[in-house]
Amino acid sequence: MEMFERPRDYKGPNLDPTGISFRPRAFANGVYALLARPWPRDNSGVIVGENATLVIDAGINGRVAQRIQKIAAKLSDKPVRYLVNTNYHGDHTFGNYAFPDSVEIIAHRKTADSMTDLEYEKRIRSRNLYGKGESIADVTRWRKPDRVFDERLDIDLGGIVVQLRHFGPGNTPGDTVVYLPKQRVAWTGNLIGNEKLLPMLLEVGPLPYMETLIRCYETLEIRTTVPGHGPLGGAGAFPRTVHYLSALVQDVAAAVRRGLTADETVDSVRLRPEFELPWWFPGARLRELMQQFQRLNVLFVYREMHLRRESAGKVEGT
Questions:
Q1: pTM above 0.90, yes or no
Q2: Containing domain of residue 291, as a range?
Q3: What are the residues facing 156 on neighbouring strands?
Q4: Which one of 246, 268, 300 terminates a domain?
Q5: For residue range 151-189, what is the model confidence (pLDDT) as tens digits?
């Protein structure tokens, strides 16, 4: 379950869907990213085969889900048969209920297992709605996946086969990558974003997260990533994020050795200059958001390190 605690005065990503728009970006005939604006609202995707259409992520409420379906209908007359949830977070799955029963929802087994407490999930996501909690008032049912997979599942749409891949835990336990090998495009959900942006540590520690990123990077030949949020990225995001997480662990460990409290650690472990957004990167709000992600990640690693120490102490005391 996602860590509920946040740093003092933390300001997370604004996911309020009011005024959201999607810009289709074509990579090939029938292969589209639906890029959401304003950032960092949730991106989506549409993949069209000769027989069927597959949609990637459902949006945060019924209205967004319906908008995604309308765009899919404009892009192709092939029926939407499949909906893939890249993770269980409500901004990716709350819109599930607004898809027809004829649409098969597919997710990783651990994603499905995490979709148990709708009210808790709504409380978590409401903090990112900046006072617009009514935007998810329509979500009274958390529609679960109809089919789950463990490591890989191939979906044949007719003339194009979509690979669903799981390489381990990252932002969530069941992060799913939707991959097209011919186009070398991967929808990565919250696993990884644009190479200049930071990840969020919410329930998975940095070490297994790094292992997952390395497995994905070494297995798939990726040219373009379509993150769950923000601008398109490339394969360079994988080694850079591993480098960031490794540096984060080192910096927090140094603070722990100094005996700093959680608040003191969050205040003192600053983002290293090499991971700051360059001046030319678009989106002024994203620069501040990355500083907030750093504070969140520092707190998560601090708590994890103390839990490990406490566990080790209990073992030694037995």
A1: yes
A2: 248-317
A3: 161
A4: 246
A5: 999 999 999 999 999 999 999 999 999 999 999 999 999
